[in-house]
Amino acid sequence: MNEIQHGSSDPIGAVDGHDVVSGKPIVPLGHHELRRADIDPKAAIRAERQVATMFSLSSLMIVSSIVAFIKVPNDTLVILPLFGPVNANHITVGSLLGLGIFLIGTGAIHWAKKLMPDVEVTEERHAFASSAEDKAAFGQAIRDGKAASGVGERKIIRRSLLGALALFPLPLVVFLRDLGPMPNKRLRETIWDKDIQILTDATYRPIRPEDIPIGGLVNALPANLLKIEEEDGNLNERGKASIILIRMAPADIVSQQGEGWDYQGILAYSKICTHVGCPISLYQQRTHHLLCPCHQSTFDLADSGNVVFGPAARRMPQLPITVNAQGYLVAASGFKEPIGPSFWERG
Amino acid sequence: MSTNKAIDTVAGGKAGVVGNYLDDRLHGASGVKKLLNKVFPDHWSFMLGEIALYSFIILLLSGTYLTLWFKPSMTEVVYNGSYMPLKGVKMSEAYASTLDISFDVRAGLLMRQIHHWAALFFVAAVSVHLLRVFFTGAFRKPREINWVIGTLLLVLAILEGFAGYSLPDDLLSGTGLRIAEGIVQAIPLLGTYVAMFLFGGEFPGNDFISRLYSIHILLVPGILLALVSAHLIIVFYQKHTQFPGAGRTESNVVGYRLYPIYMAKAGGFFFIVFGVTTLIAALVTINPIWLYGPYTPSQVTAGSQPDWYIGWLDGAVRLTPNWETNLLGHTISWNLLIPALIIPGIMFTALGVYPWIEAWVTGDKREHHLLDRPRNAPTRTGLGVMAISFYLMLWISGGNDIIATAFSLSINEITWSLRVLLFVVPPLSFVITKRACLGLQRRDRDKLLHGYETGRVLRLPHGEYIEVHAPVSDEERAVLLGKNDVAPLQLGSATDANGVANPKGKSGARRAKLSEWFYGDNVPVPSAAELEEAAHHLAHASHSEITSH
Ligand code: HEM
Ligand code: FES
Questions:
Q1: Which residue CA neighbors atom 23 of ligand 1 most closely?
Q2: Which residues contact A81 (CB under 8 A, 6 or more apart)?
Q3: Do B204 and A235 touch (CB under 8 A)?
């Protein structure tokens, strides 16, 4: 203990029972207390039995879990108090295996605590920094190598090498180009257009104005969606073209995004939140507010879909609608502004 | 190197034969002996890092199992498995295969649940372990590098968890991805390009799940494994820190040897963590994706919550007001950039560089192997509690809708209150914590000088009543003496107490001020002389107690 570590700017250690840095007294390690099992052979045997019992029980549980895996049906639900209905196979296999594994752990720790020697030992630390000679030798080795390579004087070699090394990762980045298409106008357009029929989301049926009572809400899609989804094999257009139709007493409409964009109090709004794109369908009839479940942005559908609360910065885009010759609701045009979340180029 | 086995035996028995064989080829005997004899200090809080490590191993095991059945594909299929409510429904192969794992592969559900619970424990253990390291000052020289590795591990663990959560392609995970994609779009200049390249076009596209899959099972776990290994090697090499106590100094480690005690304890603890995770997985359902249904971009469920470690980000996104500016025809979505990129960026950077900030402020350039008790670094502890309270306010904000429903309050009121609290609670926590720490320091100093109050009251000959004080035990004395006092940097003197050159000029003055703020009201450990004097006094007091009986 009475030694100071050298070779570092940080002296650590003790002299005469005092810390070299702070000068505070150091309290020596207390004497070690014997455990029951250290003095009483019977206690030791008891501890030994306990450990062995845990290990044996563990084996039993683990084998049982395999038996349960084979024997307990995987398609039967058992109703457990507190846990509700659970798959019989899942819960028996899992509980047995879990207990089996757990017992290995408790056995090992019990063994260590009761029977293995519990005398604390002291190991010296050594300062981290190398000795001054080692540091100097290391610095010299670096300088020698640098001098031998001539990288210092031979500027042309150095610069051309740096150039090549800087370029080398470039292709690896460029080759990622085909990960996806350029954005182009994709985020600005949806498949809505003049005269495209509006279908219900769940059943793909055309909708007559009379189908929507005042205060009602219908989730809807464009009629051309199914065919396009078939061709594209993805849900991209659904993610942009989903709308909601709501009907309110025409007198309740304070404003809308274009004159006559409603049809007899039926308004069509994008369903995709302008914040980060969650689809919205929580609608409060009384206030005409539309609430996004993701971050609670709230839009007033009686007042041009303007934001009344929450983190969304933009109003919900409105889709102009009318009815066709057969009396079904159709779009009067596509959306007049990009739907969904903002992006740099949106303006 | 040995030629004569009869002479150069490592040990007797079969183990000896194997050991001999290996040593002849790898020359490990002396190194491995050192390793086996290595001493580890014992403290419950040192097990937090172990829980993190074991959860990671459990994740590797259970995750590998899942890869055998999981199909990372967005191709549309019609479900025909044994979960009745979804029979005949169109969904992605990823979702269908997750249903199969849950209902048709025996023990598949168990593995899924073990994997998910282990992921939750993993991030939790990493976080609490980080707090332990912070509040005890274990990040100080020479352990700053491991602190940075730890910060990286936390970031990667969160990303890895989010990636895994997104793989099954159920309604909840798809909604999370949609939000992530919206945030990527908000990045100035590059956002739309990055989003298109990540998703192979618009959201959700056809490619993302399979791309995410290789990130989740190969790229991130690979980096995690490398960093975890480096982390552990450094811990081994630098030796573990220890709390102050009898026999413990800056220049030693007191504890148990790796072999056999520590191995038995740590190994046993691995099985305990694994066993408990398995039991919880068997009994408590997590992420019942079959209830959510397959992802479709036109549907969402209300009141849905992400995994716990994403909550604070979600909360930040909810709290930020709807700021958006238009710059020459370009949109800057502050409402997303601030909560999702700027705040986390600042938080993780501050976390990573904290050891250097503190060392600069305090001018303390010494090595530290004895830990600080949190009270003994009141400013640091205050800052830590302040950061925790900031995090908690964000985390609570992630459930603002749930709080609103539970207490029938309006979501507007809740959100506004939280916006205010986010700026009020953290500074308040700092002040309260710092004061509490200083109070504890004063009590500790008193204990050293005057002993502890025994609760026995004594009547002195002249009629006065006093409470008898007794000297603290050796162990406690060692703990109290182990406090590390650092004097604030002084302006004007050539060097500070630690021999560090004093900074000059204006920045020097500012630094001295910061240092004063950090250490100024420290209650120092009594000097050796004071202790001597007090010991004398205390002995005298107990002596008079005996004679008065
Ligand atoms: C260290 C970190 C890891 C974390 C935090 C993590 C987290 C997650 C989470 C939260 C899930 C969703 C599980 C669900 O509820 O269905 C998941 C799924 C999955 N993970 Fe991991 N994971 C990790 C490592 C791994 C590794 C190393 C592998 C493979 C070698 C893997 C393979 C999988 C697979 C195949 C799935 C999808 C299957 C399913 O969800 O049923 N994971 N992961
Ligand atoms: S996505 Fe609607 S509020 Fe965030």
A1: B59
A2: none
A3: yes
Nearest CA in chain B to A62: B275
A27 to B175: CB separation less than 8 angstroms, yes or no: no
The whole-angstrom distance between residue B321's C-alpha and the CA centroid of its chain comes to: 30
- Residues enclosing ligand 2, CB less than 6 A? A 273, 275-278, 292, 294-295, 297, 310-312
pTM for the structure as a whole? 0.92
* CATH number, domain with residue B201: 1.20.810.10
Whether the CB-CB separation of A323 and A339 falls below 8 Å is answered with no
List the beta bridge partners of residue A197: A330
In this predicted model, which residue has the larger pLDDT, A129 or B373? B373
Can you state the percent helix, strand and coil of chain B, rounding each to 5?
65, 5, 30
By C-alpha distance, which of B159, B154, B164, B128 is closest to B227?
B154
CB-based contact A183:A174 (threshold 8 Å): no
Picking from A7, A109, A219, A156, the residue whose alpha carbon sits closest to that of residue B50 is A109
Q: Measuring from atom 1 of ligand 1, which residue has the nearest CA?
A: B56
In this structure, are B104 and B188 located in the same domain?
A: yes
**Model confidence pLDDT, tens digit, residues B290-308:** 999 999 999 987 767 899 9
Is the domain of B459 the same as that of B354? no
Domains and CATH numbers, chain A: 17-121+136-179 (no CATH), 198-331 (2.102.10.10)
* B179, B280, B282 member nearest A90 (Cβ): B282
Å from CA of B318 to ligand 2 middle: 8
Query: Is the ipTM of this structure higher than 0.90?
Result: yes
DSSP B453: E
Q: Is B464 helix (H, G, I), strand (E, B) or coil?
A: coil
Range of the domain at B285: 55-239+253-296+306-372
Between residues A285 and A20, which one has the greater pLDDT? A285
Strand partners, A263: A266
Q: Are residues B355 and B454 in the same domain?
A: no
CA distance linking residue B98 with residue B69, whole number of Å: 8
Q: Is the backbone of residue B331 left (phi > 0), alpha (psi -120 to 50) or beta?
A: beta
CA of B288: how far to CAs of A87, B107, B291, B294, in Å? 13, 15, 6, 12
Of A86, A183, A293, which is closest to B303 when you measure between CB atoms?
A: A293
Chain A, chain B: beta-carbon pairs less than 8 Å apart: 348
- pLDDT tens-digit map of B213-227: 999 999 999 999 999
Residues in A 274-293 with any Cβ partner in B closer than 8 A: 275-282, 291, 293
Ligand 1: atom nearest CA of B112 is 41
Hey, is the C-beta of A11 within 8 angstroms of any chain B C-beta? no
Nearest Cα neighbor of A127 from B374, B352, B298, B368 is B368
